[in-house]
């Protein structure tokens, strides 16, 4: 188990659609352990496998005191009601922009024993679920911004140390 190094904007793994988890073995267990360790730090709500360089459909979360994970997650329900909510990303640190998200979301997948897992919630939980599944589909929250907001975000990124040092 280890806290893994994060991948940042510009890394191709963040823009690639993640492959399904097909093996439920010790390698996958180590991935899950690393996802749980890496998300279980202050200021972190969710972490998708591509954010640590692994192109598999898996994410971990730390919400309302609960730490967990989902393998092969799919969004199965979204509220029709949406709102703009400030969003940030570990792979685009220091920046936050309003993103339109459903106010309620349900994700289904499996655990390491291939047993069904359902995670649902509203507010920040719904936002996190949508954000992490977006990562698995090769999408960053910046991709959901209006054109001018996205241009502004790209300008802001260029001034950040993490962007210049990569």
TrEMBL record:
Superkingdom of source: Bacteria
> How is the cofactor bound, in the record's words?
Binds 1 Fe(2+) ion.
Q: Which family does it belong to?
A: Belongs to the polypeptide deformylase family.
- Origin species, per record, is Prauserella sediminis
**Enzyme class per UniProt:** hydrolase
This chain's protein is named Peptide deformylase
Q: Which CDD domains does the annotation name?
A: Pep_deformylase (cd00487)
Key words of the record:
Hydrolase, Iron, Metal-binding, Protein biosynthesis
Q: What gene, per UniProt, encodes this protein? A: def
Q: Which cofactor does it need?
A: Fe(2+)
Biological role: Removes the formyl group from the N-terminal Met of newly synthesized proteins. Requires at least a dipeptide for an efficient rate of reaction. N-terminal L-methionine is a prerequisite for activity but the enzyme has broad specificity at other positions.
């Amino acid at each position: 188990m280890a806290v893994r190094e994060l991948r940042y904007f510009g890394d191709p793994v963040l823009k690639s659609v993640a492959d399904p988890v097909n093996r439920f073995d010790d390698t996958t267990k180590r991935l899950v352990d690393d996802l749980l360790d890496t998300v279980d730090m202050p200021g972190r709500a969710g972490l998708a496998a591509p954010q640590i360089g692994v192109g598999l459909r898996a994410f971990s979360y730390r919400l309302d005191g609960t730490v967990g994970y989902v393998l092969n997650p799919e969004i199965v329900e979204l509220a029709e009601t949406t709102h703009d909510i400030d969003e940030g990303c570990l792979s685009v640190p220091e920046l936050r922009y309003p993103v339109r998200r459903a106010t309620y979301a349900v994700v289904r997948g499996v655990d390491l024993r291939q047993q069904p897992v359902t995670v649902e919630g509203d507010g920040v939980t719904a936002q996190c679920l949508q954000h992490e599944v977006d990562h698995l589909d090769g999408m960053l929250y910046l991709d959901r911004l209006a054109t001018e907001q996205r241009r502004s975000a790209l300008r802001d990124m260029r001034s950040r140390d993490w962007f210049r040092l990569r």
